[in-house]
Amino acid sequence: MIAAAHEFGSKNADDERLVLEALWATWGHQQPSPTLISQALKAEDHRVRSGALRVVRHSLGLLENPAQFLMTAAVDENPRPRLEALAAATWLGGKDGAEILLTVANQPTDPWIRVALNSSILKLKSDVDALLATGKFKDTQDLDKLLASKLLGAAIRKEVITKAAKAKTKGREGKVFKAQYELGEKVFHREASCVTCHQETGMGMQQPIAIYPPIVDTEWINGDKERLIKLAMHGIHGKLELKGITYDPAKGVPPMSAVGAILSDAELAAVLTYARHSWGNNSGAITVEEVGEVRTATKGRAIFYTPEELLKEHPMKEKE
Ligand code: HEC
Hints:
Cytochrome Bc1 Complex, Chain D, domain 2; 2 domains; two-stranded antiparallel ribbon; 18 helices; 2 strands; about 55% helix; about 0% strand; binds heme C
């Protein structure tokens, strides 16, 4: 089949769309052809080039060197393939992802590319910072403005606090809640903290594979406080079903790191309170004392919880 697609591709080399069709056929067999990708990337029609890049984006794990295609596209004369390369680079991640991202940033940008660039920069922040520190991209035009969100389309962190929680910040008594929410927001966004996996939006990551579950509108985040504190303090690993999606360690879901050892009781209470009042969640604060009690009660524990173990100790009210 692959050989037939190659033959079809070379026979119809002067019809770009047919080359793309041939590529799709190989993709359909989970063997996207690097030869056909290279061929389609040389097409005159930018839509054909973009189509090939979309294949690359969804086949990162099937290609030996997806970065080479994305790097070519990062300097494409048309903004659409550059945008496709950027989206794929964000999924690719790591040093290669950051390099492609900054290469796109180094070309002329438009508001669409800037919106995409800004969310990818947030996602690949540590690799982007490391690459910038090498000085390789130091002459990039407008990069400072872009990173400081000073260009049209540059992402500004959205306020995610719920209305009801916002009301709680008013007045004198509101001061304590406000301080806790703000500390929680900082902790949430620290390097390697919750944001890295569950994202700015709390929605986690379900593409290209289900890897990080959402912490929006789930009973894990909004329900039993003790269960939530235990989960965050000691981490969790095991097959987890949530909203019809299975997060399965056998399919690459990593453990959620235990943050108990790196956060104080006040920080942990704050970050959980932040999450329980953001993106529509509205389920009540967690106090320093509540965290302290769990810390004492689970002292000496050095392994992750499994979902079963936590659910046995604290059953869900409703099945999710
Ligand atoms: C290293 C990535 C990572 C970090 C950092 C992380 N989590 Fe998680 N989290 C996960 C993964 C992966 C799971 C699912 C684990 C499993 O199924 O084995 C999960 C599960 C959860 C769950 C239960 C399921 C759900 O989605 O409602 C909650 C709640 C949660 N995390 C909250 C947090 C909070 C709050 C923080 C910050 C203190 C945090 N996580 C930090 C990766 C992470």
